[in-house]
Amino acid sequence: MSQYLARIRFPDGHTLLGLYDARADSLLPSLVRPIPEITGRWEHCHAEPPTCRERYERAHHAQHGCAPAERMARLWRSAMALAAGGHGLLEEALDWQTQTEPVEVEVPACRARWRSHADRRRLALVGALEPVRH
Fold it and tell me: Between the CA atoms of 134, 17, 72 and 74, what dihedral angle is there, to the nearest 10 degrees?
């Protein structure tokens, strides 16, 4: 298995989930809220069916009504439409920047941790995965 659920934790403890691909060493930017009846014991999904990817996709569809790539394309189109409608690309970029918060990304199955940035309102990871240094 090369895909695992990742915990995205905000400074206040608020938690979202994402899908980490170990082969690509990347996290899908579209995040979901934990749904116990779907995500279950997400920390152990690499060892218990359904798979991490199946849990993530079911939660994603339940919350966003579409696949992750489609959702990110919608967010991009929405931002471009706002920019084209007079809001301005710079203003839209600044809005995204002001809405992001530092987060800790953790994949217990891989014993991996990073720092990044996410937007809890848009449910999106917006920063690169930066290794945690002690």
Answer: -140
pLDDT band for position 93 (cuts 50, 70, 90): low
Structure confidence by residue, pLDDT tens digits, 28-86: 999 999 988 888 777 777 777 888 999 999 999 999 999 999 998 988 887 777 767 76
For the question of whether the overall pTM of this predicted structure is more than 0.90, the answer is no
The residues, any chain, with a CB within 8 Å of residue 70's CB and separated by 6 or more, are: none
- Which tokens go with 90? 């710079």
Name the DSSP letter for residue 109.
G
Q: What's the rounded Cα separation, in Å, for the pair 8 and 56?
A: 13
Helix, strand, or coil here: 19? strand
Q: How far apart are CA 33 and CA 16, in angstroms?
A: 5
* DSSP 8-state secondary structure symbol assigned to residue 34: -
Nearest to 63 by CA among 99, 39, 92: 39
